[in-house]
Design a protein that fits this description.
binds zinc ion; Rossmann fold; 48% helix; 11 helices; 301 residues
Length: 301
């Protein structure tokens, strides 16, 4: 190849790579100086903080819309953001594997760190793994929202009353949703759901259901054919009519199983992140949990 052609290709490649580095999550900064600077990890944390902090905080979420969060890694831009932050809210319970190392590496003495799920007793799978998806029980969401409220007050005591009032209003909405879950699910005939990844342990524990997961605790593992066979047999035995899938991962396996047993597929959202479309529609944790409840009722009727 002539050297000027390879030079041109190199130039194109450099421009392309530079373009990739300019993704918005790497260039984010806190801009509102009079507000509390809060960094959150995953969408539910972001939504809880927004509901309680209102217009007193500028909140930036690390995992971008549309990204599956289990294998999320921090960029240098994210580290810079955490160095500017006053409060850092993460879920914990093993969800964000990067947190311990990040906090060690961080040079930010004023940062107040909150593990929202610290007060929740861990749910483990049959294999003994800790389930990180605490927020999928509305009762847990209330515990997490309260931990966040306490942290906001500690970081910004001048606005205590404001945070207390907003938390109380949000807790009322969550309690109504929790009540609906208990009432409407206990009226359903079935109790077993077939789901894409093992994210619904807390939801099942709280509301008396059982989950059978095609994949493990993270959504990126590949199911083996023996597990698919097991699920297909179980669907036939228990007359399962709905196979749940989720929007941030491919529905192919769920569709294959549904085809095989004559079931339909529906979305059951683990609310680990919003898709771009959901963000535009203004959907939030409560709205998505309402959609999940409707889907669960269809599957269990
Ligand atoms: Zn998950």
């Amino acid at each position: 190849m002539k050297s000027w052609i390879s030079g041109l290709l190199l130039a194109v490649l450099v421009i392309f790579l530079a373009g990739c580095k300019l993704e918005p999550q790497n260039t984010r900064n806190f801009v509102e100086e009079d507000k509390l600077a809060v960094v959150t990890t995953i969408y539910p944390m972001y939504d809880f903080v927004k509901n309680i902090a209102g217009d007193q905080a500028e909140v930036i979420n690390l995992v971008p819309a549309g990204m599956e969060p289990h294998d999320f890694e921090l960029s240098t831009g994210d580290m810079r953001l955490l160095e500017q932050a006053e409060v850092f809210v993460y879920n914990g319970a093993g969800m964000e594997h990067f947190v311990d190392k990040t906090l060690e590496a961080l040079d930010n003495d004023r940062l107040l760190t909150v593990e929202a799920a610290a007060g929740i007793s861990a749910e483990t799978t049959e294999e003994g793994h800790k389930d990180p998806h605490t927020w999928l029980s509305v009762a847990n969401a209330i515990v997490e929202a309260e931990a966040i409220k306490e942290a906001l007050i500690q970081a910004d005591p001048a606005n205590r009353e404001y945070y207390e009032e907003r938390f109380a209003a949000y807790r009322d909405r969550l309690e109504k949703l929790d009540e609906r879950y208990r009432k409407e699910l206990s009226a359903c005939a079935g109790d077993t759901i077939v789901v894409a990844h093992e994210a619904f342990g807390y939801l099942c524990r709280e509301y008396g259901l059982k989950q059978e997961a095609i994949e493990g605790l993270t959504a990126d593992s590949e199911p083996d054919s023996a597990r698919m066979r097991e699920i297909i047999d179980l669907c036939r035995r228990q007359d399962i009519r709905v196979i749940f899938f989720e929007e941030l991962v491919s529905p192919k396996v769920a569709e294959a199983i549904a085809d095989e047993v004559g079931a339909k597929t529906l979305v059951l959202n683990p609310i680990e992140g919003l898709s771009g479309g959901q963000q535009e529609q203004g959907l939030d944790y409560i709205g998505l949990m309402e959609e999940n409840l409707e889907a669960l009722k269809q599957a269990l009727q």
